[in-house]
Design goal:
By secondary structure, the chain is mainly β. It has two helices and five strands; from the N terminus they run H-H-E-E-E-E-E. It comes from marine metagenome.
Length: about 100
């Protein structure tokens, strides 16, 4: 099964300011769908707590999020893998600044 999530934000800020902000785990956890928290784990790696709800089914996942293909100040890609009581999940995404 695949789910596509997409969000777009319009900010009255310089691109470099936004780039700096999306390096902050607290800010990043607020813009990533279903992400409840991010804690630094290493270079460009984080422990992520993610809650997923699809219809009547919900689950919490203890996950690892890794940023890669960083292209300052244009954005980066990320992948996430996690396990929960009801199974496992994995996904990938991209943050683009323009």
């Amino acid at each position: 099964m695949a789910i596509r999530l997409e969000k777009e934000y319009h900010l009255d800020l310089e691109q470099r300011e936004v780039w700096s902000a999306i390096q902050d785990p607290e800010i990043l956890s607020e813009i990533l769908p279903n992400c409840k928290s991010l804690e630094p784990k290493g270079d460009n790696q984080f422990t992520a707590n993610i809650d997923v709800k699809i219809g009547p089914i919900s689950s919490k996942f203890q996950s690892t999020l890794e940023m890669f293909d960083l292209k300052e100040p244009d954005g980066y890609k990320f992948r996430v893998q996690g396990n929960g009581k009801k199974g496992s999940m994995n996904g990938q995404g991209e943050i683009k600044l323009f």
